[in-house]
Design a protein that fits this description.
CATH class: Alpha Beta
Number of domains: 1
Helix content: 25-40%
Bound molecules: zinc ion
Order of helices and strands: EHEEEHEEEEHHH
Radius of gyration: 16 Å
Largest sheet: 5 strands, mixed
Strand order of the largest sheet: 2-1-5-8-7
Structural class: alpha/beta
């Protein structure tokens, strides 16, 4: 029997999301990472990650639960959540990723319609796609990039997100191509062996 392809990036929404938004994230993934994409619910709720003192959800706990529940064909998993996320040293984070690992999470909580940021559902969708691709970029080993127009630039505000593009810069693209070649080689080896 053939082993699964291990080349699918899984979008794992927690709660209800606009299908048009999930489709836009999926198209972005196909464009930047050139892999298959699938949407599947992995985590039915996030109560396990809730911090009652901060009234926010601990993103690292979500990453652990997500990675532990990965279906065999999914080599990267992106949880999309609506709740506000934190890590202990910061007031909030848009998302978090395992650098060079399998799991990442993005919250739409602060990227949705924001005063002073590009307006409407279209602006929100663009921001969410950019930051979803950014978190997935980390799972391919990409670190933060000083180029403010690069997908891998670290954004401190929604306006910063609006200013950057939805693609990696030339430098990050080279690193990503190396990572993608490594993934393809590992999958071929997996099928042969
Ligand atoms: Zn980042
Ligand atoms: Zn870059």
């Amino acid at each position: 029997m053939n082993a699964p392809a291990l080349q699918t990036i899984l979008i794992a929404p927690v709660g209800d999301f606009d299908p048009a938004l999930l489709a836009a994230v999926g198209r972005g993934i196909e464009r930047v990472f050139r892999t298959a994409v699938r949407v599947e619910t992995i985590l039915p709720d996030l109560a396990f990650a809730f911090d009652p003192t901060r009234r926010q959800y601990h993103s690292t706990a979500i990453l652990k639960a997500l990675a532990a529940s990965a279906p065999p064909d999914a080599f990267k998993l992106l949880a999309l959540v609506r709740v506000d996320l934190f890590i202990p040293i910061l007031t909030h984070v848009y998302g978090e990723a395992q650098l060079g690992g399998s799991a990442c999470v993005l919250s739409i909580h602060r990227l949705n319609c924001v005063p002073g940021a590009r307006g409407g559902a279209e602006g929100a969708c663009l921001r969410i796609v950019k930051e979803a691709l950014h978190e997935l970029g980390h799972t391919f080993g990409l670190r933060h990039c000083p180029d403010p127009a690069c997908l891998m630039h670290y954004c401190r505000s929604e306006q910063d997100v609006d200013r950057k593009s939805d693609a990696p810069c030339r430098y990050c693209r080279v690193l990503l191509e190396d990572a993608l070649r490594g993934t393809a080689a590992a999958c071929r080896a997996g099928r042969d062996g």
